Amino acid sequence: MAHTQRQLHLGAFVYGVGHHIAAWRYPETNTQGLFTFDFYKRFAQTAERGKFDMIFIEDIPALPEHLETSVQYTVPVRAEPLTLLSGLASVTSRIGLAGTVSTTYSEPYHVARKFASLDHLSRGRAAWNAVTTSMEITSQNFGQDHHLDHSVRYERAEEFVEVVTSLWDSWEEDALHIDKASGLFADADKVHAIDHRGRFFNVKGPLSVPRTPQGRPVLVQAGSSDTGQNFAAKTAEVVFTAWQTLEEAQAFYDSLKGRMERYGRSRDQLKILPGVLPVIGSREREAKEKEAQLQELVLPEVGLSMVSRTLRIDLSAYPLDGPVPDLPDAAEINGGKSRYQLLVDMARREQLTIRQLVARVTGARGHKTISGTPEQIAGHLESWFVNGGCDGFNIMPPYLPGGLDEFVEQVIPILQARGLYRTEYSGTTLREHLGLSVPDNKFLLKARHQHA
Amino acid sequence: MAHTQRQLHLGAFVYGVGHHIAAWRYPETNTQGLFTFDFYKRFAQTAERGKFDMIFIEDIPALPEHLETSVQYTVPVRAEPLTLLSGLASVTSRIGLAGTVSTTYSEPYHVARKFASLDHLSRGRAAWNAVTTSMEITSQNFGQDHHLDHSVRYERAEEFVEVVTSLWDSWEEDALHIDKASGLFADADKVHAIDHRGRFFNVKGPLSVPRTPQGRPVLVQAGSSDTGQNFAAKTAEVVFTAWQTLEEAQAFYDSLKGRMERYGRSRDQLKILPGVLPVIGSREREAKEKEAQLQELVLPEVGLSMVSRTLRIDLSAYPLDGPVPDLPDAAEINGGKSRYQLLVDMARREQLTIRQLVARVTGARGHKTISGTPEQIAGHLESWFVNGGCDGFNIMPPYLPGGLDEFVEQVIPILQARGLYRTEYSGTTLREHLGLSVPDNKFLLKARHQHA
Hints:
Two copies of one chain form a homodimer.
Chain A: E1 9-14, H1 37-49, E2 54-57, H2 67-73, H3 81-89, E3 96-102, H4 108-121, E4 126-131, H5 150-169, E5 176-179, E6 184-186, E7 196-197, E8 202-203, E9 218-221, H6 226-235, E10 238-241, H7 246-258, E11 271-280, H8 284-296, H9 300-311, H10 337-350, H11 354-362, E12 368-372, H12 374-386, E13 392-395, H13 402-417, H14 430-434, H15 442-451
Parallel strand pairs in A: 1-2, 1-13, 2-3, 3-4, 4-9, 9-10, 10-11, 11-12, 11-13
Antiparallel strand pairs in A: 5-6, 7-8
Helix pairs in contact in A: 3-4, 4-5, 5-6, 6-7, 9-11, 12-13
């Protein structure tokens, strides 16, 4: 019976015109759709047809450093996530809407207000992916000549999330009266200034948006470093991550969930969803050929420069068929530590040459690629899910719109038939889809504490 | 012939559940609609049916200071404007979408990116109302204990707009190739870092969004002080303003348009739209009764506290039926100077008591209220328009949704019959509706200059 089984949670990850780095060159890809609303509307409606928990949009508020390669050969342009999600809210009715906003380059009052607004206008479907932004060049678009240190970015992020959740709680649920006869709009005693004074932020509040349908929008995070895990264990409700093997995924799953108790949280208050890039064929050979075809569309300079960027070393100075050079530990770098470590571990474990490493990671940017038949892909997802590797997946279609269509039409029905996945939404909010309760309102907890 | 006449431009101004301060208590008002998307969707679609140039959303990222009055008796809660406009973009096809974002509490890279995204997703209908934010308490939501001085706010605003327009120009129109065969996505030589280093901002660029359908989103401003007028004369394409008499409107119109030449701009590159709050009745007496009914719904403490806030003096310490006390010149205050001066001038000119001043300004917040038959209202609009008072109006329905429905159904047809107003959109972008050309790309101008 589907009802008694633990259920998979799925995100549909929007990324340009597809996740494969050469997606835009793939014949079936609608590359012209990049800035038309209809392209994203089709994506969101297809994902909703597939009963996904949510769509997810990443973000970096900058273009990558080397315009010669990034702009000439890849698709680094993006619509701003909240603009896009708000548009999609009005053409969907159930699916969750998760968007990324950096805590390093934003103000908490703006972020709290935007996601609260989206939660109201979508009737309870908003989620915020709080990231610290690892790409150094971003700092130069925001008046800073140097990127903040990794640890300082996380300290700022923690305080930022603290301020945002306080603002979301600043209106109690029953503050609004809206009584035309007496003229009482709201009970001022249930609307709280937050009076936050901290290291990074001073914010008075209250928010100018009342408490939202979900109580609070869902909190998402994506960092996998030790610092990132503690941050997630304390506050995140969904974590996106990237692993190549089930063993890595299991170790991370146990490590992160194991940290939650010290923050007074139970393991089911957080869902872990690794990214997966599925390349689907009706036969395995067809899928492998499709993957090879995508890989052939990657211009060599693009892959090399991409991996060089992640590893913070110019690999073009080394022989392509020689070994990946020795690299320092993640602790010594000031960037996206978990992605860095993933590549270093992969190169060491499999003793890869530079050419091999580039081929392996350019496609899915470090995420797991699975190419095979729908049954093989469903089997892989089930295996990670039932063996303690995850609570679901963030699905990364290699090219669009076809990559998502195929997943929804061919893989979802298998997962449903196996009782692993919903055949209809049972709730209306993203919290309901994910099985997440609403965190208690801080101001009510405080009041209770004072009475006790 | 309609074609040969100069045409009125109209904005439909969204403000809570209506512009009258007591709108929410009015029997016909849909007060529950405040945070439902369908409420705003109906507003936008009605305005589009009325062939309005644009809808317009104001913004203050804070609640007013005195929660006891503001939250208890008025409707200070709002959805964040860009969230709302993006949602409305997908349920409309022609009408312009103008939203307010403060230059005092934002980062130019974010603002440039959001409006560029909205311009793409709406196919050329975005406009940014750049305001400096006059409400002092806002500063406390953004880490500042004191509000920036009026003049510093404008200096920051000028640099802010300079950065934003440079970012909008950072992709040349023909930079995108999107050539699948060769793998060339964009011409890196036509994508420019802006390398801005100024007093308030250091921004490297380029924007991560290519040049938009309108070239640049339309620039709106609303300040009417001397500093505000110079800023508008230099950069604004639409100006919202508030006047009580045709003479004031004419003087402002001449003053602002007269300043444009010194910035190398022609008078038709800027449209001036005063706000008007129409109270419509099938007979004049019915309209006056409706206005009186709305006015009776204003609780006395609300009006007094609102006017006290604008005048920066606690009027409850003075006799209600005594004269408005002497007040300093606008030059000496650090807030919304033009609204302040408007009230001071009105009180002096008409020798109003405090009670009379409160009654006059609480309804429309200083904007012009016209109550009368559809013919009388159309006549008033025509008179200001043909006598050099304005290029059109920002229509402020007193209550919603009825106030806009009535205007579209009863006043618009009269304006159309008189040949003053479009019966169908002739273009698809907001620039086309307003008859505004696209400003030249700064990087092309620079290149031309270097070649000459």
